[in-house]
Structures are given as C-alpha cells and as structure tokens.
Amino acid sequence: MSASIALPYRIGRCAWFALVALQLAWHGWLARPEHLPTWLALAITAVPLLLPLAALPDLRRALLWVGILSLFYFCHGVAEAWSAPTEKWLALAEIGLTLLLIVALGAGVKRRKPQG
Fold first, then answer.
1. Most distant CA atoms of the chain, gap in Å
2. For 45, which of 5, 12, 23, 58 could close a Cys bridge (C-beta 3.0–4.6 Å)?
3. How far is the C-alpha of 53 from the C-alpha of 87, rounded, in Å?
4. 67-70 long-range contacts, CB within 8 A, separation 24+
5. Is residue 110 scored above 80 in pLDDT?
6. Whole-number mean pLDDT of the chain?
7. Which of 67, 59, 76 is CA-nearest to residue 23?
8. Of 1, 4, 11, 3, whose CA–CA distance to 106 is shortest?
9. CA angle 40–20–100, rounded 5-degree value
10. Domain coordinates of the chain in residue numbers?
11. Could you tell me which Pfam families the record lists for this protein (predicted)?
C-alpha cells in the first residue's frame, strides 16, 4: 500500500478503534456485567479486537482480521439489541460500527477485470 491510505481503509480503521472504545465503555463503565467480573468481560470483548494490532504495519491485513472478528460483534449486537432493552442503544451502535467496518473493507477491495 502506498504512503497515503485509501479512504475506505481510513474509515475501516476509525470504525475498528471506535468498536474497541465502545467495548471498553460498554462493559467497563456504562453497563457493567452483573454475573461476571468486569475484567473478564473486557478480556472477552475488547482483547480480541486488539490482537490484529500485531499486523498493523500492513493495515489491509489487520483490517481483514478485524473484519472477520467483527462478525462475532455483529451477532453479539443483534442478540443484545433483541434481549436487553436497557442496552439496546449500545447494541445498535455496535451493529452500526461492524456494518461500517465491513462496508469499508468491501469498498477497499480492488476488483480484477475479467480476462478474455
């Protein structure tokens, strides 16, 4: 990738970091879990999103891994929006960020022209 980062990857990166911030705020401050220690909830929700930082020198690869992980967060958001009315706004934010991330990754894919 060139020195300037394409717009879809910048949007994807922002959505990724916003998703990390949302998990930290949601499970660490706004709606702490009732039946789990806070540290465990944060380990389950935020740490997996931090693992692709190891691939960050190659932003496309890091975003690919985050895109795969975001499918879990999309499912989590749908389940929470359905089952927890008090946390519905947080779940909808999670759904929105995961969709933004996936759309940004799809927009960043370079299409090959058909040969023949």
1. 60
2. 23
3. 28
4. 67/12, 67/101, 67/102, 67/105, 70/19, 70/98, 70/101, 70/102
5. no
6. 91
7. 76
8. 11
9. 135
10. 7-108
11. DUF2069
**In this structure, what is the dihedral angle of CA atoms 53, 59, 64, 68, given to the nearest 10 degrees?**
30
Residue 108 and residue 13 in contact, taking contact as beta carbons nearer than 8 Å: no
CA distances in angstroms from 63 to 81, 82, 94, listed in the order given:
25, 28, 17
Query: What span, in angstroms and rounded, lies between the C-alpha atoms of 1 and 99?
Result: 24
Residue reference for tokens 């997996």 = 48
Q: Can you tell me which residue has the tokens 């960050």? A: 56
